[in-house]
Automatic annotation (TrEMBL):
The organism's place on the tree of life at top rank: Bacteria
GO MF assignments: DNA binding; DNA-binding transcription factor activity
InterPro entries: ArsR-like_HTH, HTH_ArsR_DNA-bd_dom, Metal_resp_trans_reg, WH-like_DNA-bd_sf, WH_DNA-bd_sf
Annotated keywords: DNA-binding, Transcription, Transcription regulation
Name of protein: ArsR family transcriptional regulator
Length: 113
């Protein structure tokens, strides 16, 4: 299990629309930079910078196939995180019974003054 710092670093690494798009494409399988250029509206140097960051955080890796650099997912938590980000939720969680909004109950903890 990742430490709290590791989970925070994971979220920081993922927290960019282009990196999410890259990771979603890598869920489908190995891709090289030219594959991303065809489907992502960004320059090759920009895509390469994001790939380097994702690799630095240990989420992806690559191998060379001739002149091509082929990227793939390595961190098994990435598909789970992406699945949660894609999930559509309806409504909100209910307010707690002690909430001033519901005007029911009292705070269960000790109040500090």
């Amino acid at each position: 299990m990742k430490s709290a710092r590791g989970r925070i670093e994971l979220l920081k690494a993922i927290a960019h629309p282009l990196r999410i798009e890259i990771l979603e494409q890598l869920e489908e399988g190995v891709k090289c930079v030219s594959d991303f250029e065809e489907s992502i509206e960004a320059s090759q140097p920009n895509i390469s910078q994001h790939l380097a960051l994702l690799r630095r955080y240990g989420l992806i890796d690559y191998y060379n196939d001739g002149r091509l650099r082929c990227y793939f997912l390595v961190d098994p938590v990435v598909p789970d995180v992406l699945k949660i980000l894609r999930k559509q939720y309806k409504g909100s969680l209910p307010a707690p019974a002690c909430c001033p909004v519901t005007k029911k109950g009292t705070y269960p903890g000790t109040r500090r003054r």
